[in-house]
Amino acid sequence: MQQVVDLQNDEAFKRLGIELLAISPDPVTAWQKEGGALDVTVPMLSDIGNTVWLKYGTPAWMMATNEPGHTFFLVGSDGKIDWVRDYGAMEHGGVMYVKPAEIVSQLKDVLASP
Fold first, then answer.
1. Distances (CA, A) of 60 to 9, 25, 57
2. Rounded to 5 degrees, what are φ and ψ at 73?
3. CA-based nearest residue to 52, from 90, 22, 82
4. Contact 84, 73 (CB under 8 A)
5. Diameter of the chain by CA atoms?
6. Cα–Cα distance, 64 to 114 (Å, whole number)
7. What is the pTM of this model?
8. Which domains occur in the chain, in start order?
9. pLDDT tens digits, 21-35
10. For 79, left (φ over 0), alpha (ψ -120 to 50), or beta?
11. Nearest residue to 5 (alpha-carbon basis) of 41, 30, 46
12. Cα–Cα nearest to 39, from 4, 70, 71
């Protein structure tokens, strides 16, 4: 959840004009409790049953423990996926937390592409 908090509060991320939506398989009550305690202000979706997770193909990037990592999608205004990155995947370092500056840098590159 700290990843969400840090991104929502990051000034460089805000300047990108990207809307952040957090999605987790955790129940709504867990989201509300932790999100409230951390002052999460972005929309949070509880994906019980992993419907969204499966629709976007994120099982392809599961961690070595067969758990979902932190997958980021940039969805354009046309609804198409412009960028995807799962930092929990071994080929991306197998980490669960990424500094906002790294994410912002990658998103800037994508947004600058024709």
1. 29, 17, 6
2. -125, 140
3. 22
4. yes
5. 41
6. 35
7. 0.81
8. 2-112 (3.40.30.10)
9. 888 888 889 888 888
10. left
11. 41
12. 4
Q: Average pLDDT in the 5-23 region?
A: 93
Residue 56 CA neighbour count, 13 Å, CB half: 22
Q: What is the pLDDT of residues 35-91, one digit of tens each?
A: 889 999 999 888 888 888 788 777 766 666 666 667 888 888 888 888 888 776 676
**Beta carbons of 4 and 23 less than 8 angstroms apart:** no
Given a contact cutoff of 8 angstroms between Cβ atoms, the answer to whether 12 and 100 are in contact is yes
CB atoms within 10 A of CB 40: 19
Angle 91-94-99 from CA coordinates, rounded to 5°: 110
